[in-house]
Amino acid sequence: MIEKIDAFISLVKDWNVLIVGETIVDEFVPVSYEGNSMKSNCPVLKLEGQTTVQQGGATAIANHLKAFVKNIDIVTNKSNTIVKTRYYDPFDNRKHIEINKFDKENYGSNTINEHNYDLIIIADFGHGFCDDLKISKPFCLMTQTNSNNFGFNRVSKWKTHSKHMVCLDLREASLQMNKHYESANEKMLNDIYNYELNSNHLFVTTGKTGSYFTDGEKYINQPVFKTQIVDTIGAGDTFFAFASLISYLPNTHDYLFLPGLAASLSTTWLCNANSVNPPNLIKHANQYLQPSL
After folding, report:
1. Which of 196, 192, 195, 170 is CA-nearest to residue 183?
2. Which CATH class is domain 2-23+57-79+108-288?
């Protein structure tokens, strides 16, 4: 497997990559729970330290990939227009409450200069930035489902665009098909692949049972990797970042372990506190290479 990682690094090192999508500012406020207010039914939290501010969304995806490829350009919204503030317990990383701020911004239409890039990644977090993109070259796509856009940010809104790869989690796959999936299998992958997808490759992530891949012919399950989890926020974005790269390799099937490996590494720190790079990915592989369901 280490040889495969080395080969991957060598294959992508000269690529020019464009990432399009919303940058999300993640704020983490450390607090502890003191109980409920005596006069109203609301939690009382005690501040336990300084607020941490991180760049998430499309910028986090760029940060994960920048050490692997020659050049990364990013087309994104203005800074601090999308902010997600999480009040969390620093002792067990449990989130008490989240407050979202969405400043109104007229994103307008963006025409993508697509011809200067080996691949284009579109990370659509459903906040409007990607709603009017002008692009004709096939691209890698993620349409995230969150509390702000639940049910409205489905892959099918991109059905007229030609995609090279689409990545969904199990909930997003369920919304896409108007059917509640509790697990993934070959029939489910085939149904999604043939329903308003218009993509060469499909990844579906499921959490505990790993990820599933199809190119319309092969259906492959890649189990999860053992690790000591600190926080899972951002792991799906990490998976998507590396799934995008391997989907352009001539032997994609040989590298299906890599997105899950990178995602498991990103769960060993708080949200986007760090980024994946070749040294820490190889170190992580040496420690946690044995997969387990």
Report:
1. 170
2. alpha beta
